[in-house]
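Thread: quick sanity check before group meeting

JM: Hey all, I'm pulling together slides for Thursday and realized we never actually wrote out the predicted structure for the chain we discussed last week. Dropping the sequence here so it's in one place. If anyone has concerns about the input, flag it before I start.
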Amino acid sequence: MFSPVTVIDRALLDTDRWFGTLTPERGDALIAEARVRAIPAGGLIYATGDAPNGLWAVIEGQVRLKGYPAAGAEFLALILRPGTWFGEVSTLDGGPRPHDAAAFGAVRVLHVPMAAFQRAAERMPALYHDVGRLVCQHQRIALDFIAETLSLPVGARLAKLLLGRLDDEDGVLHVRQEEVAVMLGVSRQTLNRHLRSLADQGAIRLAYARIAIVDRAILQRLARVD
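JM (edit): ok, ran it. Output follows.
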């Protein structure tokens, strides 16, 4: 079911570090034909290989981008929370979707269809530059992650990931350990050893598909390892 963008929705979007930097005219043009859609838990917003269907933004809940680098392997590429935009690569280059975008729990998302984006960009070509900046923003996150993977020890990378990339407001990370292992580029056994060490130190508490942060100070100390 689709609904119009509310004042509250727009206020949330304006807090995003990308959308919030757009001029009011271009921001208005981008969402003039946008609609808000409810997605049930586990529902696909788009799938790997799909044709581009426009820009999206999370309004409520959590969306996860997942890739499949090899048969039977699943890669958790990014966790997206309210206010965050996604789907920009295929919107810009017209190529197929590189990831699945799936609802983690029930979510509400804003959708700017391809045709609506193209109409807005015809009137305001600077929107192509704006979306290019969004691509660069996400690319920088990916490059920083690669640099950390190559330079930091596993313990420091894990601490940074727990504090940042997967950090929920309640401090509970709803994620499977195999997903974290893939993101860190280590085996499940190596990850389990480091998680158990953090649990023994009192930094985290482990449960099935959940990692609860108990003591952030310990993680912050480990994350600062040179």
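AS: nice. The mean pLDDT is 89. Strands lie at 2-3, 35-39, 44-46, 55-67, 75-80, 85-86, 100-112, 172-173, 204-207, 210-213.
JM: adding both to the slides.
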